[in-house]
Design brief:
Shape of chain A: elongated
Strand content of chain A: 25-35%
Order of helices and strands of chain A: EEEEEEEHEEEH
Oligomer: homodimer
Helix content of chain A: 10-25%
Radius of gyration of chain A: 19 Å
Largest interface: A-B, 40 and 40 residues
Largest sheet of chain A: 7 strands, mixed
């Protein structure tokens, strides 16, 4: 079997990985990440990662959307897998493009579907509810977790009674998800 | 080179395409489609497809997000490629899951960036602005085009002065994007 080569197919306008013999094109596509800011009163649910990258750091329950599920189903599944939490989404909080690594992230606002119950799934070392002032900002796994937590905070009503408006997008200071975000104990400006 | 087999990798919970020799996993992921309802006064821009599937049918300027671009950049690029139109997005109109075919669609509301100018790109036979009552409903290419046009219409202010709220999602009557949508000359109920 021949090795794939990088070339521009007929009728296309950018390079693809192609088989030089049969012309088969292996498209490389951005991936969809779905996740949620799960609220319990004024607290939010974070998971401490048991896997690389960023093992030991805190993140929102989130992961790759699977074939055959809706974005909403995927976000709920991730909370179940990573935090053994049954959640109900109440709307789309943010859409982020992390173009640097080919990701689109859809982050929902959510609540527990019943009384709050959670525990670490196989990919988590720990799962906890944090008050805003107790969030371990220096140990947050990814820039988009900062962005989403701040987008949630900026709604003003931390218990989630404020209807969601147009979802947040990449911060202007980092429009393509290409730059590192400063880690700070302060609430970051928009 | 051995043929890939479908099996559940260690530590995973669903079948993947795997090389039985080296364990390489070829993940199959949902794809992101980005597009726009481009408004000019009370009219919307539609493109008549020059390619399969649904050649000859009308669609919104939309297509697959590419690696390295943001969702907003992708939606603008598609309008340029399919309609030679320079557009400005003003927000996210709808997020649809077409789980049946592994797609997530992000549809924006947009305007022309300058005086309206458009013409068919290589993938379009024709490009036109339509008043609502003139939209060729029987010749619309995809269910999500119906959904997005109706989501735009239901904002009430067709010229786009109404701020966008939370984006529309799959119609309740077709929550997974699995059923065929009735084609009708009437405005479809939510």
């Amino acid at each position: 079997m021949p090795e794939f080569v990088r070339q521009i197919p007929d009728g296309d306008n950018r390079e693809r990985m192609m088989c030089p013999d049969c012309g088969h094109i292996a498209y490389e596509n951005p991936k969809v990440v779905v996740g949620a800011v799960v609220m319990e009163g004024s607290r939010v649910l974070l998971c401490r990662r048991a896997i690389e990258p960023r093992r030991g750091f805190w993140t929102l329950p989130a992961g790759y959307l699977e074939l055959g599920e809706t974005v909403e189903e995927g976000a709920a599944r991730e909370a179940q897998e990573e935090a053994n939490a049954m959640i109900e989404l109440d709307g789309l909080l943010a859409v982020y493009s992390v173009a640097r690594i080919g990701q689109v992230q859809l982050i929902y606002r959510a609540r527990f579907a019943g009384p709050p119950a959670f525990s670490p799934g196989p990919e988590s070392l720990d799962v906890r509810l944090f008050d805003w002032e107790d969030i371990p900002w220096a140990e947050i796994a990814f820039p988009t977790v900062h962005w989403a937590l701040n987008a949630w905070r900026q709604l003003g009503d931390h218990a989630g009674h404020t209807p969601l408006g147009s979802p947040a997008t990449n911060p202007v200071s980092d429009p393509r998800g290409t730059a590192r975000i400063d880690i700070s104990h302060e609430e970051r400006p928009t």
